[in-house]
Structure formats: C-alpha cells, structure tokens
Amino acid sequence: MDSPAAPNPTVSQREQWMVEAKVYQIYDLFANIPCNAQSLMLELQRDNHLQFLNKGLRYLGPSFCVLDANRPWLCYWILHSIALLGDCVEDELEDNIIDFLNRCQDPNGGYGGGPGQMPHLATTYAAVNSLITLGGQKSLTSINRDKLSMFLRQMKHLSGGFRMHDAGEIDVRACYTAISVASILNILDDELVRNVGNYILSCQTYEGGIAGEPGSEAHGGYTFCGLATMILINEVDRLDLASLIYWVVFRQGNECGFQGRTNKLVDGCYSFWQGGVLALLQRLQPTVVKQMTRQDVEKGDAVRDGSQISEASNISEGEESLDGTSSCHFSRGVDLNSIGYNFIKEPVARGPLFQSMGLQQYIILCSQEQEGGLRDKPGKNRDHYHTCYCLSGLSVCQYSWSKDENSPPLPSAVLGPYSNLLEPIHPLFNVVLEQYCEAHEFFAGF
Predict the structure, then answer these.
(1) Residue of 261, 375, 377, 384 with catalytic role
(2) Catalytic (active site) residue 397
(3) Among residues 49, 145, 238, 264, which one is catalytic?
(4) Could you tell me which residue ranges the Prenyltransferase alpha-alpha toroid domain spans (predicted)?
(5) Active site includes 350?
(6) Residue 261 appears among annotated catalytic residues
(7) What is the pLDDT of residues 83-140, one digit of tens each?
(8) pTM (2 decimals)?
(9) Residue 136, Ramachandran bin (φ over 0: left; ψ between -120 and 50: alpha; else beta)
(10) CA-CA distance, 107 to 441, in Å (whole number)?
(11) Considering 55, 325, 338, 414, which has the largest number of Cβ atoms within 10 A of its Cβ?
C-alpha cells in the first residue's frame, strides 16, 4: 500500500523556509571565514548609518509622499537613531526641525502628521519624543502642555481606552501613546488613567500576549504598548505576567530574531518591540515572582476547598491588588508622573530573558546594510523605521546584563568590538536615557 502523499506546504511555510535559508547562508558564511573577516562583519557601520540618517533629514525622494501624514515619525525615527549612535544634528538643522514640528502642532493641542493636518495621538507621540531627543530650552518649551493635556482628554473614551484621533479607532496603541506623552511631560493624572487598565486587561489574549483591541490576536507591538502603559499607570500586576513572559520568549525564532505574532516571519523591528517587552519584564521580576507565588497558593486552596479561583488578570472592581490597593484605581496615593523615572532607578534583579547575543547577531549580520541603514530581514530594503527599531533593540541587548543605569555593559555583553556600544534608552519611552532625564528634570519644574 502506498504511503500517503505529503501535504502541500502553506504559503507561510514556504516563506519561512526561504527566510531561514537566507539567514543560515549568512551565518554559514560568517562561521567559515577567517577571524579578521569575522570582526569586520560584526562591526556596526556607524559612519555609514549616520550618513544615511542625516541625508534622510535633509532630503527624501518623491516615493516618500505616501508618508506625508507621518512626517513627525520620520523625524523621530531618524533623530532617535542618530542619538543612539551618540551623535546629534547641526544647530541650523535642529532649529528647522523644531520650527517644522511647531507647525505640526494644532492650536487646540496635539500634533498632526504635517502642518495643517488634524492632531493624532501617534504623531503626537512621535513629535514629543523628537523634541525630547533634541533637548534644550527651545525644543522643550515649544510643546504646549496645557493644550496637549486638553487634547488627551478629548481622546479619552468611556471604555477606558483612547481614540487615535477625533472619531478614530480605539486601541492599545492609543492608550500607550497618550499615557507615554502625559507621563514624560508631567501631565499624567487620575482622570487620564481611569479605567485604562481595565481596557488593556480586556486585550490580553489566551496566548499571554496583548492584542490591539479586545478579541484580536496577540501582537508584539501592542504587547509592548500594553505592558508599558500598565507600568506607567501602576497597574502592571493585574496582567498575567507569567503567560506574558511565556508568549514573548517563544517569539524569538530559529534565526535568533523576533517575530511579531505566532507563525509569522522574523522582522528586525521586533528586536525592540519584543526585546523591549522582555527588558521591561526583566525589571518586573519581583512582581512576577510575587504574582506566581500567590497563584500557586490560590491553586492549592482551590484543591482543598473545591472552589473556583479567578485568574490574576480577572480581578473584579473593588478587589485588592498585590500591594493592597484597589484594582480599579491603583494610582491612588501614587505620584503617577514619577513612575517612569523611578522604574529605571531600581536595580535589575536578573539577567536577560532572551538570547541577547543571538539577537545582536541577527541585527548586525542580517539586518545591517554595510552601506548604512538597517532592514527587516535579508532581501528587504533599508528604511528609517527599521533602522530606528533595530538600533533600539541592539541597545536593549547590550545593556541587558547591566544591574543598574550607572553600570556600563561589560565587553562580554556586546557582540563585536566594544565600539559597537550604543547609548542606553529608557525602555518605557524609547528615548535615549540622557535625553529622558533632561526632560524629566525640565518638566518636573512645572
């Protein structure tokens, strides 16, 4: 009797095999060349990246017209990448960028995708992070915090979430961009926080990751946004952190890079979106242990009592959290605007939760273009978006063994020459740490 025919591979399987073949070809080449050639392959092409980035600030070709509503994002991706590389822009260009972003600022608050465009939470986040990255009096004072606070309140929805723009979609990305901006500008308050945690909880899926909206699939970008938001509003222990860790660590694939969703292809940008999630969870280890201990105790009680135990992520309104505060409103008695600052002051209790060297290898060997810029994967073109998030992920990797913000990485934590070392970032906001601290001190005076 003939054996059954092998099933035809799916489109996703064929694409996965093609990506693996390209990546393994690069790794095989690297493994079989002399040591001096390996050192050259592992070198971060800093000067070429800076040339690519500075050119993008001065001129973009006609093909970029499709990003006309994303011009603050282009500013952020490029400026943040330059800052990660330890450089800055010339004074005249900096003034031009500040003036341009000021023209994107709506008279009633928030920033649009370009001058005259309606304000949008995503481009507001990008514009604010760009101005914080530039730093200095002119840049930081250009942000109209009062009007921006009014705009954030207008975007607040009864569900607890936020709309991206007037009559726009409600999702976890909107929650993060609103809360992140409010936190970094020292305008976060109980009104903005109210019920945000409930909305994000409704987006944590059976897999453990977080979806963009209730009922959707867990996704790396939304998982970062949801987790970072829950930290900033002091409600992170309402999430099921154990299942969240389980989901994220299994998104690091055979290629050593991260995928954004289950059964999807690896993508360089998830070096930050997923690597950043694990950098946040690494700092939450005491909370994770405490939550898992409580769950173990409750399961033991359930066996003895025969009672039903609610999951940690389903605490009802009025019950208590791990710290004894109401799960409905954890911010009571907490200085919300200091949470982001205090988060990076706590010592890190454990090492990275992912293969740090493997991810650095993927970024440098597979995402880096020798002529400058970084890309999604081999076979794709470089762009400013992937340059930003690949470099952000590389920074996360390099500092993943550091015990505190004042501990520079050891050479053993940096793949390739130590000159590859980037600037550290604040993992909640994805801005360079030095620029974040300047902004925090500046806005704390208001």
Answers:
(1) 261
(2) no
(3) 264
(4) 44-431
(5) no
(6) yes
(7) 999 999 999 999 999 999 999 999 999 999 999 999 999 999 999 999 999 999 999 9
(8) 0.91
(9) left
(10) 26
(11) 414
